[in-house]
Write a structure and sequence with these properties.
The protein is an alpha/beta fold. It has five domains: about 80 residues, Arc Repressor Mutant, subunit A; about 60 residues, Orthogonal Bundle (Arc Repressor Mutant, subunit A); about 120 residues, no CATH class; about 100 residues, PRD domain (PTS-regulatory domain, PRD, Orthogonal Bundle), CATH 1.10.1790; about 80 residues, Rossmann fold. Helix content is about 60%, strand content about 10%. It contains 21 helices and ten strands. The radius of gyration is 31 Å and the shape is globular. About 5% of the residues have low confidence.
Length: about 500
């Protein structure tokens, strides 16, 4: 028996006749160096059975030395043997939580051991660890002798946690790809789709939703579409919310077309799954859909004035801290639409997982820190999560890029002849590529042109006429003048 991990290491070594460092090997197959070192003794034993040598040289790495014939025999063995996967602790924890959250009765440790492909001792250690972490998730893991383990928690909380764990293990681009494939899936995707039997629910809901979203021209991101499918699938698979009473705050103002969409979708789902939503389920269904359908803010009526004030304050404070003019109607609208849905999610106790949070913190750390502090200052009662703030940060990153990448139409007025005007245009193109010189004119022809169509007018000598949006520079365009021009463009 050989593990998938060992197979990956062997295949990587067999692809080259050169030495490969442990570091490079670990990066290629996405393992730690320590894990690779731990697997090498077993791999060496396996290779020796096929008279294949594994050579190790200090400061060079390792390589396999053998003939093509022996390599072919080894590959046949690897492809024909049943492989077992060794799950890391984080994956085992997710699998255990998924199974316990998805079940309505006690689950024996033996079943969890089979699911995680590990020993009973390992599973019991994992469960002890999870019991200590349970309060963090606002759940309690109970154990009963002879029956097994069970998660005790509010049904709605269990469903939301289940969705959150699924989201953290299924990238949005992979999710839609897996819906239409029968091929072997990665560990977690296979477990969710087949072991927990969610693939049929995902596909049926997708097939109902997708044509309706297109037909009604509903604005929704792929990520939100995925979340909506998951939340509906879990709700339907669990046969609703049980007997507990819930109070859902569905106070968003919805245009008629979106209300009509939601009503028809509910009817379609009830017909497809042969079910009838009760009061709890109907209100929760409306809550789910209202979270993800884009509620357009048009700046006229039907918007939350308090939220809009908070957003304008957020933008103003960000401009002060980041020392850059950022306000535009697109940024205001995008923040309004995102925050209206995010705050509604939080009212319902639904927390999202942002798969790009760490990348955003790493690549835009300064901007993230600024936006984090401002959000905590403005939204004092909402307790906005790090994941949401990372999404909000991206809107500001885009706004800053738009400012930096905006194309400015320029008119160059040169009093010194064509030679100097060409020199200036060349310098502008090199130093300020977002300035596009649409025309160069001598002063004598200046009044013949429509000046309003230019964003900036660049002069090579001061003129004795009143002119907005103008700056005087030398044809050589000094570094100081380049800096002044950048400051003008930012404003």
């Amino acid at each position: 028996m050989v593990s998938i991990r060992q197979k990956k290491i062997i295949e990587c070594l067999c692809q080259t006749s050169e030495y490969t460092s442990i570091k490079k090997l670990a990066e290629t197959i996405e393992l730690t160096e320590r894990t690779v070192y731990r697997e090498l003794p077993d791999i060496k034993k396996l290779l020796s059975k096929y008279n294949i040598k594994m050579i190790t040289v200090f400061n060079k790495g390792i390589k396999v030395d053998t003939s093509l014939k022996k390599l072919s025999q080894l590959k046949r063995f690897l492809n024909s043997n049943i492989l077992h996967e060794i799950y890391p602790a984080s994956k085992r924890n997710d699998i255990i939580l998924l199974r316990l959250l998805d079940e309505k009765s006690y689950i024996k440790a033996q079943v969890l051991a089979i699911d995680t492909k590990s020993s009973l001792k390992t599973v019991r250690n994992d469960l002890d660890r999870l019991k200590k972490l349970a309060p963090k998730y606002r759940i309690m893991i109970e154990s009963k002798k002879g029956s097994g383990f069970f998660i005790k928690a509010d049904e709605l909380l269990k469903q939301n946690l289940l969705v959150k764990i699924i989201l953290s293990n299924l990238k949005v681009e992979d999710f839609f790809k897996y819906l239409s494939t029968e091929n072997i899936l990665p560990i977690m995707a296979h477990y969710i789709f087949y072991k927990l039997n969610y693939k049929d629910y995902f596909n049926r809901i997708y097939n109902l939703l997708q044509p309706m979203i297109v037909s009604y021209n509903i604005q929704i991101t792929d990520r939100n579409f995925q979340e909506m499918i998951l939340m509906l699938a879990v709700l339907l698979k669990h046969n609703g919310l049980g007997t507990d009473n819930y109070s859902f705050n569905n106070d968003l103002l919805m245009p008629y077309a979106e209300q009509d969409f939601m009503t028809k979708l509910k009817e379609e789902i009830e017909n497809e799954f042969l079910c009838n939503f009760g009061k709890n389920e109907t209100e929760y269904f409306w809550g789910i859909i209202s979270l993800y359908i884009n509620i357009n803010y048009d700046g006229e009526i039907g918007y939350n004035k308090d939220l809009l004030k908070c957003i304008i304050s957020l933008i103003n404070k960000a401009e002060q801290k980041l020392h850059q003019k950022l306000y535009n109607l697109t940024l205001e609208k995008n923040l309004y639409n995102h925050l209206s849905m995010a705050l509604n999610r939080m009212k319902k106790g639904i927390r999202i997982n942002n798969p790009y949070k760490n990348d955003i913190k790493k690549n835009y750390g300064n901007i993230y820190t600024v936006i984090y502090k401002i959000c905590k200052e403005i939204f004092t009662d909402e307790n906005i999560s790090d994941d949401e703030i990372a999404y909000i940060t991206l809107y500001f990153v885009v706004a800053m890029d738009d400012v930096n990448n905006r194309i400015f139409k320029a008119l160059v007025v040169c009093t010194s002849g064509m030679g100097t005007s060409k020199l200036l245009v060349s310098r502008l193109k090199k130093e300020l590529p977002n300035i596009v010189v649409e025309k160069t004119l001598p002063f004598i022809k200046l009044k013949e042109d429509e000046l309003d169509r230019y964003d900036i007018i660049i002069l090579t000598a001061p003129l004795h006429i009143q002119m907005n949006k103008s700056i005087t520079v030398s044809p050589l365009l000094t570094d100081k003048e380049v800096k002044e021009l950048r400051q003008i463009l930012e404003k």
